[in-house]
Design brief:
With 306 residues, the chain is of the alpha/beta class. Helix content is 24%, strand content 20%. The chain has helices at residues 29-38, 53-59, 95-101, 114-126, 139-152, 167-170, 214-220, 230-233, 236-241; strands spanning 3-5, 21-23, 41-43, 63-73, 90-92, 106-109, 176-178, 185-187, 203-207, 224-225, 248-252, 259-261, 266-270, 286-292. The strands form four sheets. Strands 9, 10, 11, 12, 13 and 14 form a six-stranded mixed sheet that branches. β12 and β13 form a beta hairpin. The longest helix is centred in the middle third of the chain and has 14 residues, at 139-152. The mean pLDDT is 92. InterPro entries: GT18_cat, MGAT5_Glycosyltransferase. This is alpha-1,6-mannosyl-glycoprotein 6-beta-N-acetylglucosaminyltransferase.
C-alpha cells in the first residue's frame, strides 16, 4: 500500500516526513476529497481528538483506523487535558466514530500491539466498504435536530423546582418503577410527568459500579447519559426506590453526586445543579445515572423526541 500524507511544509525547508510517504502538503478541500476517494485506509495517530477529518474520510469511502487509549486519556494522565475543568475520559482519538459508527468503517485497536495492528490492516485490505455518512451529519439530520431543539425547549421560563413541595402526598410510593424486562428504573406511567425535554418517558435510572462514570454505565446498557435528567433523580425518592441503605443523606457540591457509598452507607445529593456531571467518577461511590435511549443515526435525540 502506498502511504500518502498532507503535512504542511515551507518551500525552503524539506517536509519532516519519511521518504516513503508521498506528501501532498496542505491541499484545498476539493483536492483533499479527491485524494480520500482514491484511498483505502485513513490512519489516525492519536491527535487531534474528535476532528472532522476521520468523518470526511469515512464519507469518501475510507476505513478509519485509530488508536485505542489504555488507560483512557483524561486530566489525570494526559498533558492536553491537564488543568482543564473536566472529568471526561477519552477512550480513543475519535470516540464518536468508535461508538456510533464502528466496523466495518471504523477499527479501533491498540497501536502498541503489533500483532493486533497487523491483523487490522490485513482485514482492511480484504474489506470493501461504501462511503458512509451518519444521518446526523447530513443536512436533513441537522435540520431535524435543530427543529426538535427549538420546538420542545423553552429557554424563557425557569425550570420549576423538583421534587414539588407536596411530593409525598402525590407520590406515596415514589415516581419510579422497574421497567419491563430490565433492572433499570423508569418514570411510573401512572404518575404525571413534569414538563421536560427530553421527555421523562425516555429516562432509565441505573446505578454505576464504584469508580465508574455515568457515561460508561449508560453505554454498557446501550444507552447514553442525559444531563437534563439529573434534576429528576437527585432526591431521596430515587435512593429509596433503589433500596439504598443510607445512614444519612447530605447535600454537597460534588461532581459525582447524586451517589452513595455501600461500605460507609453514606448517600449524597447534589447541592449545585451546575455540577451535574455524566463523566465524574470516584472509587468510593456508586453513582445514580440518568440514562436514555437514542435514535440510530441521531444520538442527540431519544426515540420519543420527535
Amino acid at each position: 500500500m502506498e502511504v500518502h500524507g498532507t503535512v504542511y511544509y515551507e518551500a525552503q525547508r524539506p517536509p519532516e516526513v519519511p521518504a516513503f510517504v508521498k506528501n501532498h502538503g496542505l491541499l484545498p478541500q476539493q483536492e483533499l476529497q479527491q485524494l480520500l476517494r482514491k484511498a483505502k485506509l485513513f490512519i489516525g495517530f492519536g491527535f487531534p481528538y474528535e476532528g472532522p477529518a476521520p468523518l470526511e474520510a469515512i464519507a469518501n469511502g475510507c476505513i478509519f483506523l485509530q488508536p485505542k487509549f489504555h488507560p483512557p486519556h483524561s486530566s489525570l494522565n494526559h498533558e492536553f487535558f491537564r488543568g482543564k475543568p473536566t472529568s471526561r475520559e477519552v477512550s480513543s482519538q475519535h470516540p464518536y466514530a468508535e461508538q456510533y459508527i464502528g466496523r466495518p468503517h471504523v477499527m479501533t485497536v491498540d497501536f502498541n500491539n503489533s500483532q493486533e495492528f497487523d491483523a487490522a490492516v490485513r482485514e482492511i485490505m480484504r474489506t470493501k466498504v461504501e462511503p458512509y455518512l451518519p444521518y446526523e451529519y447530513t443536512c436533513e439530520g441537522m435540520l431535524e435536530r435543530v427543529h426538535a431543539y427549538i420546538q420542545h425547549q423553552d429557554f424563557c421560563a425557569p425550570d420549576p423546582p423538583f421534587p414539588p413541595a407536596n411530593a409525598s402526598k402525590t407520590w406515596p410510593s415514589g415516581p419510579f418503577v422497574i421497567l419491563p424486562n430490565s433492572t433499570n428504573l423508569g418514570w411510573a406511567p401512572n404518575v404525571t410527568a413534569p414538563p421536560s425535554w427530553p421527555p421523562l418517558s425516555a429516562l432509565q435510572l441505573l446505578v454505576s459500579e464504584e469508580g465508574q462514570s455515568c457515561v460508561e454505565a449508560c453505554q454498557r446498557g446501550g444507552l447514553v447519559c442525559e444531563p437534563a435528567f439529573f434534576r429528576f433523580i437527585n432526591n431521596k425518592e430515587a435512593l429509596s426506590r433503589l433500596e439504598v441503605q443510607c445512614e444519612g443523606i447530605e447535600a454537597e457540591m460534588n461532581h459525582v453526586f447524586p451517589a452513595f457509598s455501600v461500605v460507609r452507607r453514606e448517600c449524597g445529593l447534589q447541592k449545585e445543579p451546575l455540577l451535574f456531571s455524566c463523566s465524574g467518577f470516584n472509587t468510593k461511590y456508586r453513582r445514580l445515572c440518568p440514562c436514555r435511549d437514542f435514535r440510530r443515526g441521531q444520538v442527540a435525540l431519544c426515540r420519543d423526541c420527535l
